[in-house]
Amino acid sequence: MISVQEADFDHCKEYEALRNEADGDGAVVTFTGLVRDFNISGSVSAIHIEHYPGMTEKSLVSICSEARNRWELGQIRVIHRVGTIEPKGQIVFVGVTSRHRKNAFEACEFIIDYLKTAAPLWKQEGTNQGMKWVESKVSDQEAINSWFENSR
Amino acid sequence: MIKLMFFANLREGLGTGAINFEYAGEKTVADVAQELVARGDKWRLLEDSGLLCAVNQSICDRSARVHDGDEIAFFPPVTGG
User: Does residue B75 sit at the A interface (CB-CB below 8 Å)?
Assistant: First the structure.
């Protein structure tokens, strides 16, 4: 299940929903991405996330589909927030269940790695000179490349 | 008629997030981009080969074919998550 929303999410409720719906699965793995409470210049600032309504959801569905092609999984839940998010705020949630832990760990990492290079969302962070667009990171591209090149 | 959409710093640079574009003939995304670049000025931002594009909300490259009624988007590398 996929959500793109401005509202914050309750991590505990999401975990409980995964646990309740995970028939026969023994493992639940979750990842939460937070707004770090410092930026490049060291000051504390809110971020703002822009997205491509319609395509964001489509892309997250496609990413989860790819995860299911690679691993046998139970439940998948992805939530990505958009709009303004304060320092220490929650940006993204990825939750995965599987029978045993290996699939859930790997699929969760794969989904967030893939999302960071393929889902149409763009971050700005506050600086002394106003909002600045965050640059994409080479390390993020390398992370997803390693999934596709090495068949991890 | 096709719909063109722009996001993030590209949207800011162009001063618009969406325009309609009269469509005729057999074109690719590259052809459409070229016609916009020919308008000069800020439209030259579309020359940036680092930009990504999508047709009908699926990522593609600039050789992708375009049809009447399509939605094409141009945007910088993504930074979600």
Answer: yes
| Chain A positions in Cβ-Cβ contact with residue B5 (cut-off 8 Å) | 52
Q: Is the dihedral of CA B39, B42, B44, B50 positive or negative?
A: negative
Q: Does B58 touch chain A (CB under 8 A)?
A: yes
pLDDT band at A38 (very low <50, low <70, confident <90, very high): confident
Cβ proximity of A1 and A77 under 8 Å? yes
Spatial separation of the C-alpha atoms in residues B73 and A136, rounded to whole Å: 18
- Give the global pTM: 0.93
SS3 state at A136? coil
Q: Which of A58, A91, A118 is the closest to B78 by Cβ?
A: A118
Report the complex ipTM: 0.93
Q: Which of A36-45, A115-124, A135-144, B10-19 is least confident?
A: A36-45
